[in-house]
Amino acid sequence: MIIAFSGGVGGAKLADGLAAVLAPELLTVVVNVGDDFEHLGLRICPDLDTVMYTLAGLANPSTGWGLAGDTASFMAALERIGGETWFHLGDRDMATHVERTRLLAGMSLSEVTETFCRRLGVRHAVVPVSDDRVRTTVRTDEGLLSFQDYFVRRRCAPRVLGLTLEGADSARASERFLHAMNHPQLKAIVFCPSNPHLSIAPMLAIPQVRACLQARRVPLVAVSPIIDGNAVKGPAAKIQKELGFPVSALGVADLYKDLIDGFVLDVCDAELAPIAPMPTLVAQTLMRNPSDRRNLAEAVLEFASRLRKP
Amino acid sequence: MIIAFSGGVGGAKLADGLAAVLAPELLTVVVNVGDDFEHLGLRICPDLDTVMYTLAGLANPSTGWGLAGDTASFMAALERIGGETWFHLGDRDMATHVERTRLLAGMSLSEVTETFCRRLGVRHAVVPVSDDRVRTTVRTDEGLLSFQDYFVRRRCAPRVLGLTLEGADSARASERFLHAMNHPQLKAIVFCPSNPHLSIAPMLAIPQVRACLQARRVPLVAVSPIIDGNAVKGPAAKIQKELGFPVSALGVADLYKDLIDGFVLDVCDAELAPIAPMPTLVAQTLMRNPSDRRNLAEAVLEFASRLRKP
Predict the structure, then answer these.
(1) Which stretches of chain A sit within 8 Å of chain B by CB?
(2) Mean pLDDT of chain A
(3) In terms of CA atoms, which chain B residue is nearest residue A58?
(4) The total number of structural domains that make up chain A
(5) pLDDT digits (tens, 9 = 90+) for B66-102
(6) What is the distance between the alpha carbons of residues B49 and B47, in angstroms, rounded to a whole number?
(7) What is the ipTM of this complex?
(8) Which domain holds residue B183?
């Protein structure tokens, strides 16, 4: 039994690799909800959807988010009547947001996610880290921005001064996450190659989640989202720099050093492995195709199995 | 200056004909809101949308409702994740419902409708009869059904025992309607060929609307939605029968007899004209194309201009 912590696109790829090599009952993907927001009256959960669509084999391969082959009639019509179009919502993707918003009136986010996964044929558990409201807010040189305002509307242009995780202090971990953490067969925990500040930190900011991780009896391994000083996708490098951390796999290792037992860096960064403050694995972490995802998943699991328990 | 009362498809066709022969400042189309409902968390206003789309030249010519060339990706995806699909919502059409629902948090339905009409290039005034909540409820042999439950989900199959117009008693007429009614240049009022029970009655059930019509100083003309004992579209004939009224143009004239000054029946029903309880015009009321709409509009306006004021 493995728990994988994931944000959006990069994390979803490794989660998909893990799903390819582990039976459904042996993997729980725990997903960030700090990116979630309300838009056009709808509850939008970008990371949950990306993981769900990726594991369902429905993700748009060129963007990583959204649905493959989705159309944009809704957006075109919305523009015509003067609506807000800065956040793209495909026609099929809209069904997820509309139905989730409706179901949330009587269900938890965990239950809604489970329902959708079942309908989409996702057999591995995909669970929000919390059913409570946690919202990443970005302090920037242009003022306080809600996460999607910063990330999508402003395309990460403002300089980040800090991040605030609204609601994290009082949020509870989801029951499904706690169930997986307490599973007697749990063998390892993996931080997927997601943005440490935007995807992993919002989960760790929930006291119960952090406490569970600190009390764990299995190895915790993180995979670097920074390769050769750059993020594969998204603003991980830019934010790492703006927050004053070294923009390298080592900089990421450093962020996690009090928590993790092992760190996976890319073959490009092999020379950093010896100076990392924890055991390392050098592997091909860039996932260009399903086979890369599986290979990385297998390498990470094998690495974790060799690590001392904390 | 003309006021036209309209429900959905049939009414929208005559409203479109009137818009073709009258300058924008000379026509106000007052639209039923009794069919409006909340579905999937969205406010849906079928009659307003049908009138708006028809006047914008965007209506689906084969159904009469919805947008021409609209696609069904949203519905297909909604079905896949287990959502309710009995009420069809096209991908482009969705933009109207999502944006309206959002705007209604800070605007009246009249303001939202005006905004959308401006964006869609509709220059004639389209106004909801009321900004308040009025909901047609159908008492049937299978129990009480909300209007769209009866009309769309059950396809008008249950036998109608009566109609209840929830909220009508306390609803106020919209300001734009009152403004048009009080316009010094008002020349006539037209009931478009809409269902008298489902489209016109819910408007008349608003005390202020009925009082305005009773106090009018201009002729009020109704166009029969029943031709040769049948409705052109929809359940007008079935409901007329189930409620115990004669299923004929004359039956409709009878319903309106205390209110209207003139009645327009189809050439098929010419033999009924002499026995109608008010002045009549025999005209081609079936509107198969834009030219039919214009011709009927012109005939109705000419007829109204010849009638005595009440």
Answers:
(1) 40-42, 67, 70-71, 73-78, 80-83, 90-96, 98-99, 101-102, 105, 115-116, 119-120
(2) 96
(3) B77
(4) 1
(5) 999 999 999 999 999 999 999 999 999 999 999 999 9
(6) 5
(7) 0.91
(8) 2-133+163-306
